[in-house]
TrEMBL record:
Signal sequence extent: 1-30
Name of a matching Pfam family: Pollen_Ole_e_1
GO annotation (BP), single: response to ethylene
Cellular component annotations (GO), alphabetically ordered: cell periphery
Name of the protein in its database record: Proline-rich protein 3-like
Keywords in alphabetical order: Signal
Keyword Kinase: no
Length: 179
């Protein structure tokens, strides 16, 4: 009988914790019209009224190269990020483009953009990441693996609260080499 009572207490406690979490999530959801709350953090597509650059954005990925049948990380590679922009009246403006830092020995790259780097009267909309440059003379051909040539759309992100950054991930991207 004691085991049955213990199971009942555990199940009741778990139900209480679950219901508490549901209440917290529901109350954090907020009103969809105010642009805040838990729902907006988990929504991969940005709401129309939410600025892409409300915080710093970061784009991370891996750049590789293929020589014969061997695939290795590419050190010194660059990615390019291009974003469509609109002016203060909602009309299409000149696109905004920036480069990543050079990829490290593991092929990892990071590109960052802060709100202060973009004209206040422009708003960035759709952004894509592209393979840009390989430092290897015989590996200059970008492949379209993971849309490295056609452009990998930035569509979902992790919110890094401590860095105040929306971190997008793309790739891995691949350059091919001539043998």
């Amino acid at each position: 009988m004691a085991v049955a009572g213990l199971k009942f207490l555990i199940m009741a406690s778990l139900r209480a914790v679950f219901l508490s979490l549901l209440v917290i999530v529901a109350s954090a959801g907020g009103d969809d019209n105010n642009g805040g709350g838990y729902y907006d953090l988990m929504t991969p597509i940005l709401a129309k009224e939410q600025r892409l650059l409300s915080t710093m954005i970061g784009i991370q990925g891996i750049i590789l190269y293929k020589f014969g049948s061997t695939i290795s990380p590419l050190e010194g590679g660059l990615a390019r990020i291009t974003c469509k922009a609109v002016d203060e009246y909602g009309y299409e403006a000149a696109s905004y483009t920036f480069l990543s830092d050079s990829s490290d020995a593991n092929g990892y790259f990071l590109a960052t953009l802060s709100p202060s780097e973009v004209d206040d009267k422009r708003e960035l909309k759709e952004c894509k990441a592209f393979l840009e440059l390989s430092p290897l003379e015989n590996c200059q051909a970008p492949s379209d693996l993971n849309n490295g040539v056609s452009g990998a759309l930035l569509h979902s992100y992790k919110l890094l609260v401590h860095n105040k950054m929306k971190l997008f991930s793309v790739g891995p991207f691949l350059f091919t080499c001539q043998s």
